[in-house]
Amino acid sequence: xxxxxxxxxxxxxxxxxxxxxxxxxxxxxxxxxxxxxxxxxxxxxxxxxxxxxxxxxxxxxxxxxxxxxxxxxxxxxxxxxxxxxxxxxxxxxxxxxxxxxxxxxxxxxxxxxxxxxxxxxxxxxxxxxxxxxxxxxxxxxxxxxxxxxxxxxxxxxxxxxxxxxxxxxxxxxxxxxxxxxxxxxxxxxxxxxxxxxxxxxxxxxxxx
Length: 208
Prior knowledge:
Layout: E1 5-10, H1 16-27, E2 31-32, H2 34-44, H3 48-53, H4 60-68, H5 86-103, E3 106-109, H6 113-116, E4 123-129, H7 132-143, H8 147-168, E5 182-185, H9 186-189, H10 191-206
Parallel strand pairs: 1-3, 1-4, 2-3, 4-5
Helix pairs in contact: 1-10, 2-5, 7-8
């Protein structure tokens, strides 16, 4: 095996990004999240703000499309009126994620990467969650917000992510454990132990 990918989906406040960052340092491989938006912008010449606006959430018009289950297709030509549509923006990112899976070892946070790479043999998919109280505490400390505000942020962010995932995976449930190799409770075992467990699973799955 020449390279491997670890995808990490996470509940807001569960520490998934923190775990991914620590894991990348431990394994000596890059961790991609916001960087994929920049890469997609550079590749397509679409302003990065468009990718930021659609990052793991649906714009208003896409919610109606989601209800109609419009099929997700490949990247369209720049001359097309749909070039900056939500679906095309997603597909540009998906192409970058597939290219990463074929060319280097890395960690990818969010972006439906587990589903995009579901047919790749060199991928480990991880879902990280924690009880609401732990997530609230984490968000309050990280963002310096009230308990009420933290609860609202968690509710809204997870709702956006669930709709986004369902839309781009033809109705799959973002929190379904069947989607993943590992499902970890970061509050119960601790973030550092999450890193250790994923590292151990990398060794088991890829025999390295």
